[in-house]
Amino acid sequence: MPPLSIWYTRVATVHLLTGFTIGALMLANKGVAFAPWLWRLRPAHMELLLLGWLVQFAMGVAFWIVPRRWEQPRRGNVIGARIALVLLNAGVVLVVLGSLVQDLPALTAVGRLLELLAALAFVSHIWPRVVGREG
Amino acid sequence: MPPLTRWYVRTALLYLFAALVLGVLRAARVIWQIPGAGVDALYLHLFMVGWITQFIFGFAYWMFPVFSREAPRRSPRLGRVVYVLLNGAILLRALALPVRSLSEGVDWQWVELLSTALLLVACLLFVVNTWGRVRGR
């Protein structure tokens, strides 16, 4: 597994753990109501698991196993994938913060924009690698 | 990577992009109070079915153990049918959700019903084509 995939996977796992912890607390709160404010964390829970975990994990694994070129550098220009890692996580953090701070919807909008740019950066890297054996 | 997987992965990447564009629109709706009740559902649909499910279908078709020496990926034709049905279902729902929220009184439920039926058949055929490949050496 290349170092960048290790980064993607490890950060994704942190998001998974955080998202599941929030989800478990919300579920527990449904059974025994100990903190009604926990329900406000639902958008953060969804963001962490959908973008932080699923998308990030898929990107990390795709960077690793999608076909490589015969010549060096085998994975082509990886700058797009590196930028995507930074933008995606910045986006997820901003959207999570935006869901917690009710008066700042712009925070969520900026976060979503960063996520969109992350997808664009990742697609710019991976698209030329989605090929068959013949290249 | 077989040609069908390339189709799956590239289409999935396009849906990821489309879903994240809708994500920006969702956030903008809150700031500028823009109407559009179908956006949330469409965002989740494109994200979970168009991106995640399609990406997994494509990679499973490519990476799972071979079915047999003669038919390593079992039925490529069935794989293509699944791709067409899945994307037909996604596009029908993508069409029905916003139109339904904008045009009150018009019955768009049959389009959603058809979309759901296509999705179900696509999933069923995917399972049929993949089941025999889920095994060890």
Task: Give your account of this protein's structure.
The complex is a heterodimer of chains A (135) and B (137). In chain A, 72% of the residues lie in helices and 0% in strands. Chain A has four helices and no strands. Chain A has helices spanning 3-31, 42-65, 79-100, 105-126. In chain A, helix 1 (3-31) runs parallel beside helix 3 (79-100). The longest helix of chain A has 29 residues, at 3-31. The mean pLDDT of chain A is 93. Helix content of chain B is 77%, strand content 0%. The model of chain B has no long low-confidence stretch (mean pLDDT 90). Chain A binds chain B through residues 50, 54-55, 58, 62, 65-67, 95, 98, 105-106, 108-109, 111-113, 115-116, 119-120, 123, 126-127, 130-133, and chain B through 1-3, 6, 9-10, 13, 16-17, 20-21, 23-24, 26-28, 30-31, 47, 51-52, 55, 63.
Low-confidence stretches of chain B: none
Compressed to H and E, one letter per element, the order of chain A equals HHHH
Rounded radius of gyration of chain A (Å) = 17 Å
Give the low-confidence spans of chain A: none
Oligomerization status of the protein chains: heterodimer
Number of helices of chain A: 4
Specify the structural class of chain B.
Answer: mainly alpha
- Share in β-strands of chain A: under 5%
Helix content of chain B: over 70%
Mean pLDDT of chain A: 93
| Strand segment tally of chain B | 0
Shape of chain A: elongated
